[in-house]
Design goal:
The radius of gyration is 18 Å and the shape is globular. The strands form three sheets. A nine-stranded mixed sheet has the order 3-2-1-5-6-7-12-10-11, sandwiched between helices. It has a three-stranded antiparallel sheet with strand order 4-13-14. A two-stranded antiparallel ribbon has the order 8-9. It has 13 helices and 14 strands. It has a single domain (3-317), classed as Ribonucleoside hydrolase-like (Inosine-uridine Nucleoside N-ribohydrolase, Chain A), CATH 3.90.245.10. The mean pLDDT is 96. By secondary structure, the chain is of the alpha/beta class. The structure holds calcium ion. The site of calcium ion (CA) has 8 residues, from loops.
Length: 323
């Protein structure tokens, strides 16, 4: 049976790869994507997602959601991701988002799927928090929520304490973890840093795959590679595509445990810090946190996907030149 899912995304770099996995993995029934403020400018994120549809030669409805965090000003990760697509551009005429708001679309799709909808949230949790505020039962209607965010008693990325998605909208993250979802967390550290980094060896293999998807991957990951190497991470990071992969291929998860996850909203120093309590502090578990994956299996999952031949309807350009 295909797995019905929605991807809630701040589309840049690995978000693009995650959307490709949702579009092109045979067992996935991607019902739509919902856009949330995060990595790069909102309208740029929309373009990045449309370019992802283009390279996949496959489109699903795109719903625009929150352009700002719940109560804070937006902060970008453009220093990490650039425009999030390595300078790629194309003719966007005819590519239009749906008129329905992302929050309404999430609620409607949950109704239509009658308890079978999965949500993979790979940006700040603003849209998910708004959906559960608009309709608290949304939390129990969603079969499985996979959240990319936080670190499991390990270092952050945007600050020492915090990972970007939870830092940008900590109030939203707190609402979501208090809401009663069946939620699985894909943390930044140590999981992503240990097991979802593609080093130069893997990137060289991808560069040799002669498909539009592989060329696109190399472009969208290029800016992040330079940033990562400048801060001591030996390759490109793939927590968002891992989040889609663990939903579609649960056998990739080799170790996980129950935690109580709560988010810091009061402090500026530790804003967005995810306290992940591992069961010895008397707190009720509210999340499954992934601790280890089959890293080779995940790499092969993405390499297989990038090896598919697609026929993108539009040509991409870089700085006005066709490529
Ligand atoms: Ca993301």
């Amino acid at each position: 049976m295909p797995i019905p899912l929605v991807i809630d995304t701040d589309t840049a770099q690995d978000d693009c790869v995650a959307i490709l996995a949702g579009l092109l993995t045979p067992e996935a029934d991607l019902r739509g994507i919902t856009m949330v403020a995060g990595n790069v400018g909102f309208d740029r994120q929309v373009k990045n997602a449309f370019m992802t549809f283009n390279v996949a030669a496959k489109q699903v409805p795109m719903y625009l959601g929150s352009r700002l965090p719940l109560v804070r000003p937006w902060e970008s990760a453009e220093n990490v991701h650039g425009d999030g697509a390595g300078g790629l551009d194309m003719d966007f005429s005819g590519f239009e988002p749906e008129a329905e708001h992302a929050v309404d679309a999430l609620l409607r799709m949950a109704d239509e799927a009658a308890g079978e909808l999965n949500v993979v949230a790979i940006g700040p949790l603003t849209n998910i928090a708004l959906a559960v505020r608009k309709r608290p039962e949304f939390a129990s209607q969603v079969k499985h929520l996979v959240v990319m965010g936080g670190s499991n008693n390990a270092r952050g990325n945007i600050t020492a304490a915090a990972e970007f998605n939870f830092y940008v909208d900590p109030e939203a993250a707190k609402i979501v973890f208090d809401a009663g979802f069946n939620v699985t967390v894909v943390p930044w550290a140590p999981l992503t840093l240990k097991q979802a980094v593609f080093g130069r060896d893997v990137l060289d293999r991808i560069a040799q795959i002669e498909t539009p998807l592989a060329h696109f991957f190399t472009s969208v990951c290029s800016a992040t590679l330079a940033f990562d190497e400048s801060v001591g991470i030996p390759g490109t990071t793939h927590p968002d595509s891992l989040s889609v992969a663990v939903l579609l291929r649960p056998e990739l998860v080799t170790k996980s445990a129950q935690y109580n996850v709560d988010i810091e909203t009061g402090s500026e120093l530790t804003r967005g810090y995810a306290a992940m309590s591992w069961g010895v502090h008397g707190l009720a578990a509210n999340a499954t946190v992934i601790e280890e994956i089959d890293a080779d299996g995940f790499r092969d999952f993405l390499l297989d996907m990038l090896g598919q031949t697609t026929q993108p309807p539009r040509e991409f350009t870089v700085a006005g030149s066709k490529i």
